[in-house]
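Exercise 7.
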Amino acid sequence: MTVATATRAATNFHEVLNLVKSAGLLKKKPSFYIIRLSVISAIATGLWVAGGFIGGAVQTHWAWIFAAFGIAGLLGIMSAQYGFIAHEAAHRQIFQNNKANDALGLVLANLFAGLSYGFWLRKHNKHHQHPNQIGQDPDIAIRILSFTPESRDQKRGIERWIGERQGYFFPFLLLLTGFDLLLDSIANLRRKDRPIGTRLLEFSLMIVRQTSPYLLMTWMFGWLWAIALWVFMMMVFGFFMGAAFAPNHKGMPLVPKDSKIDFFERQVLTSRNIKGSWLKDNLMGGLNYQVEHHLFPSMPRPNLIKANVIVKKFCEEKGVTLVEMNLMASYKVIIDYLSKVGLSNNADPFVCPMVATLRPRS
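Solution. The predicted structure, written as tokens, is:
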């Protein structure tokens, strides 16, 4: 990259940063999160109360168990909502004080979503530093899915068999996301580079979160149904989390390992926005404004929609491609991309006009 190009790229980011700062969009809005947490907690409490009544009804007729599965699924969605706010706390979107953000994030992630906050913080920070960069982004180094033919070819046995058919399996693999995150969380608690006290606290909170629902369900429905309901809750939680995060970068251009790309282009060209609505903005935790989130990771969720207007206009003026599409269209792109990687013998199966802009520069 020449000095002139680097200067222009740096100017692009600082220009758009000044625009959002001038609009006051980086100011924290803790009241938004306090209200949201209160609403989510009220809904979750109501669901558990309803589950208690259904537990009694099951004793009179077994068909009520289907309502119990509905309750378990909704509880899985509520857990994902807690997880989204933990994600925002990790980005310092809620409070000015970093310790307050970390304290809230740890409680929400471990006690309400059942995942390790420390694991998520470490993994997600790496992703934000190198989105879609081969060998750097942990989100494209997944056990089951392959994002390059090279990655697919390194897999063996059942993983290789699934990898070659991953496009077809993708919707079903999302159901396993919750279990995968849980296993990674447990493995991360064994890392000796973290204080033992913090690891014990996280582990204790996770144990409470993962066992309490099962014990309550056992009391309501018996131990056998409790196992099925807990598994179903985890599947819905994982599916919802995966379905919200997957459209952000999957199927977007991959960055070669040694590529030199400026911050502005790296974040915009590798991210995908999903056209918003009131429902999507709420259910997806603001992740549908992924470009804006990557450019300004500490920006509070309610300001992302306003930043979206500024960033889209800025990209149009600068001739930088910003991808935005409907949610279902994004899933089709992801499935098509994964199918091409799984079945292709080509070292570069995803041909995209933007890929040329992501090659290493001298």
